Amino acid sequence: MRLADENGLFHNVDPSNDYVAIVATLRLLWSNFRAKLATDSALDAASFVRLDSRPRFEQAFTALGANLSTVDDSWSDITPVTVQANYAQFTVTQTLNGQTYLYLVTFARNDDGTWSIAEL
Where is 101: in which H helix or E strand? Predict the structure, then answer.
């Protein structure tokens, strides 16, 4: 099913889910993730990532060192693209040197019902 949001943009929606609640949950998760990046804490930021992806993210965050806190300075808010019971994709844009880049952020629901970042 495709539904329009408040801006008239259409999104794929699984009707068996509470779209609004999932989007709100994932926006909060993303906000908390960004807050941890801002504190330069690679391990705290990586705690928002799925366990199977965490080592890769920890390595990347650690490699950024003191620059970790500036990673998200040019990121936009996330925008939902696909929202399902256990999976969601959002977009985020980043502007660097006048160029705007579009990235997908994939979230997955864990076995315990919590959500984590699966890919970025």
Answer: strand 99-109
Strands of the sheet containing 115-119, edge to edge, are 2-4, 10-13, 79-83, 87-96, 99-109, 115-119
- Residue 100: C-alpha distances to residues 19, 27, 74, 94, 119 (Å): 28, 21, 9, 6, 20
pLDDT tens readout for residues 45-64: 888 899 888 888 888 888 87
Structural domains of the chain ordered from first start: 2-119 (3.10.450.50)
Which segments of the chain does DSSP mark as H helices, in order?
19-38, 42-46, 54-64
The three-state secondary structure class of 56 is helix
Burial tier of 12 (Cβ tally within 10 Å: 0-12, 13-18, 19+): middle
